[in-house]
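tool_call: predict_structure(chain=1)
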Amino acid sequence: MALRAVYTDLDGTLLGRGASLFRDAEGGFSTAQSRAIEACFRAGVEIVIMSGRREPQVHELARIMGQTSYIYEAGCAFALDGETTLLTAPMEPSEDGTIYEQIEARGVPRYLFDHFPGQLEYHSPWHHGRVLSHLFRGKVDVEEGNRLLAERGDDDLRLLDNGAIGTPMPAVDGRSHAYHLVPRGVSKGAAVAAHARARGYDREQCVAVGDSVEDLEVAPSVGRFFVVANGPERDPGLRSMLSRWSNVTVTDGANGDGFYEAVVSTLVERG
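tool_result:
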């Protein structure tokens, strides 16, 4: 079945060191990403960014890549040809404020910070300007965090792990992680499935590429999921989950090299 769409994470996947589209994992100049984008263009394959970043950032990179669709704030919404679809139901912006402001007013972020002192904080400065979700960094047990939310009566929200990052924290051993606090039903996997339905793509016509536990949740929504090599190398939690889905492949290459490998191998396979 012909390939129609490639869904890709940004940081740690499509982007290299310094969040650059033209750097590899070590910081050297790389054209791997641009060559993969060109290969998709020539084959008529849509590239859809699926990112935890806020909408203006994702929109701009999609525009630079010549794409008209993208998923942002960890799956809270997707844009398709200029129209935005929120996936945060039953939560929605209201006279009480944005979804971000509603969550903040309930005191949920402060509750989590107090419970995980020194282990969780806002991922400054990238937490600013968000409207649908909260962005943290640290090193916490996500299952414990979600249990605490449920016990507090905030089970309409969930904490999710978006992978290891390079920002050190004094109280955290090893790599810190990025975390998103989102409405309960939100995920990149749900957003990918919703976008594919809107486009009329069959599951087997889609592949996805990522580097985190949250990215891996996209696997059931696509025909094949590629984990770039740096993901499991940095995150034992991700490594332990790879066998849960039969359609998951770990690339030999890291970051953009892995993205290129995923795209080109799929295009050759589908002929």
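agent: The two ends are 9 Å apart (CA to CA). Proceeding to next step.
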